[in-house]
Protein 1
Amino acid sequence: MSWQGDYLTFHRRIQEQRKALGLAQPKAAAIVGVSERTYRNFENGVGDLDAAKLFKLANELGIKIIISDGVIADGVD
């Protein structure tokens, strides 16, 4: 799988977990400090968030990001 495929999988996983937690898009956007439109574009795979925002979001959603060689990032405090 290419990195693009992995990235789209990540977008879907973020969206699924956000919904499972009952977190609305405006709240998720506020957590990472972006507009709702920017957040919506990110979830739809047509926009990006910087790395710090991705780690913060993953942490809030309880998602661990495996960087490489088995290193796991738990998010940003």
Protein 2
Amino acid sequence: MALRQKRHTKRHAHRTPAVLSELHEGEHAVLERLELADEDNQRMMELGFIPGTLIVVGRCAPGGDPRVYRVDGSEIALRRETASRLRLRSGSNGQD
């Protein structure tokens, strides 16, 4: 008699990505904080990436980097490295 092991699969359907780079096209989230150098933080805030702001993910370049993000009425392209330094508010992502 062969014993069958149950496969335990983890579902991440409702897991909130921790950083902006983990979101997919069409998803949105609220920015929690920026983890960049002070000079870079200032520039990002000038572009509209202010904590508490809703960010919507747009299309990406054919190679996957950079990706376009819609924030405060503008479309801004960010490299994955930069987007990975923008932390998201827990429980704020979803799809429309």
Protein 3
Amino acid sequence: MKNIKRVSALICVAVLLLLYVITFILALMDSPHTMALFKGCFACTIFVPLAAYIFLRLHNYAMWRSKRSDPYSSSQNISGSGKQDDGQDISR
């Protein structure tokens, strides 16, 4: 889990730095789109870390859920015949 957190943090930092570098370069070239790119960069400053946090939480939830015992798993007696899916009698 530590590696996933580290990789996602590095990706977020790289994306944010790339956004700011592109905005800075376009500001130096006096592009008419500089203000729109700066606004987008500002929005991404909030959105990118928030999205990474949400994805990490979803990953944690999925890992927790997969470790839980599932009441509807195939090892349960679903057919009601007294036998498991592998044919062993469990009615004793």
